[in-house]
């Protein structure tokens, strides 16, 4: 099924409103007239690729939606999108894994832009005990795993607070880049999560579990 693309003007207007900029404010920052910007937003003018990139930079549009803006205008994407399993990405993947392993015996993981598990250290495995096997079939979605009745939810004492916290962070992360790698979309969306013990008893339990591996 083909994805229906939003018109260029609607995309720019959405990001301008999200950044709380008037047409005049954005036009001044981008070095163009407010009239020209208005024509672009209403579809009466077609901007050059260079102008679109300038507008995207002024609006701080993340890589994936920046590509959407360019494609909506008929231009080639700015950012590559390679699988994290791509041979060219192996060194980066190894670096991320080293970072996660350095946090052992505390759990640490990395998820992609859809919250699918990409990397994890050994301390994560004990947390998944009792989870339904169907939730562990790739791709493993960390949000589903956390909140599903057959996942980790029954084992989370403060589930209501945890759920509210997850949803709040979801709303925040939807507009925030969490990994600074401007040349590739998938890496720019990579999020590293580290879980630290809240008390000495938890720290001791994690250390004991690690010693028994």
Question: How would you explain this protein's 3D organization?
Answer:
- The protein has 213 residues and is mainly alpha-helical.
- It has two domains: 65 residues, Orthogonal Bundle (434 Repressor (Amino-terminal Domain)); 125 residues, Beta-Lactamase, CATH 3.30.450.
- 45% of the residues lie in helices and 6% in strands.
- A three-stranded antiparallel sheet has the order 2-1-3.
- Helix 2 packs across helix 3.
- The chain is elongated and about 65 Å long.
- About 3% of the residues have low confidence.
> How many strand elements?
3
**Main sheet summary:** 3 strands, antiparallel
CATH class of the largest domain: Alpha Beta
Q: Regions with pLDDT < 50 over 5+ consecutive residues?
A: 172-177
Number of domains: 2
Structural classification: mainly alpha
| CATH architecture heading of the largest domain | 2-Layer Sandwich
Binned, the helix content reads 40-55%
| Dominant shape | elongated
Remind me, CATH topology of the largest domain? Beta-Lactamase
Order of strands across the biggest sheet? 2-1-3
Put simply, the count of helices is 10
